[in-house]
User: Fold ATP synthase subunit a from Halioglobus japonicus.
Amino acid sequence: MAASGETQTVSEYIVHHLTNLTYGKLPGGFERYDGSIVPDGGVWTMAHGGAEASAMGFMAIHIDSMLWSIGLGIVFCLLFRSVAKKAEAGVPSGFVNFAEMVVEFVDNTVKDTFHGRNALVAPLALTIFVWVFLMNLMDLIPVDLIPHTLMLLGVEYQKIVPSTDPNITMGMALGIFILMLYYSIKVKGFGFVKELTLNPFNHPIFIPVNLFMEVVGFLAKPFSLGLRLFGNMYAGEMIFILIAALFSAGLFWMVPAGLMQMGWAIFHILVITLQAFIFMVLTIVYLSMAHEDH
Assistant:
């Protein structure tokens, strides 16, 4: 149900929940949702619907994804800063005990997987695991709660799960890719060029073939990393939205929809944790490969 009181169809309900709060520049001459024409030179504004967001092009910013991801990153920093201040010798308790378990778990995973020497990897792995987990955890909040509340306050669109936005997941994957490239050049030096050109066929005549295969494989790593997280979380959110749409199908569907919502939420706890773990482990593996100089 829209804030204006107009009834939404199921299709409109789904599209609305999958639309980001987008800010960008509409081109001159573009016809907006209310029939007005954007003057020459364009105008910077909030998009109203997918058509306007699409017209804004590459420079459009998903305000909701940016705010939620940065906000959850700040939550992570504050939580672990609080734990660090409370940590002391002796038996920990409460959240300090839980945080120490998480740190120990990530540290052991890094020791088992990373075969180089780099003081950055363990803190980076911990940050990725907790940050991605917190972003995924937003999927367990009832799908209508925050978007509908903000709509009543005048905010038309709101997606609260940053990991369902490919701009966020691919942005993180791009950061990992830059680290892979940096450490491959720093650790291997000219050996990185040899790895790209003389592997798997160790003969100069196969350099073009080797280079093509190695570059494709190298570039595929960040793409698979970002798209795997996005795809799994987006599918999970879609199921929540579809189940929520059943509540509008009549009283008969209220109880089944409630049970399905509860069942999927319980199962989804495993999914959000597993996806955070996979993103962290693949990051460690890729950085370990960047440090291996044969």
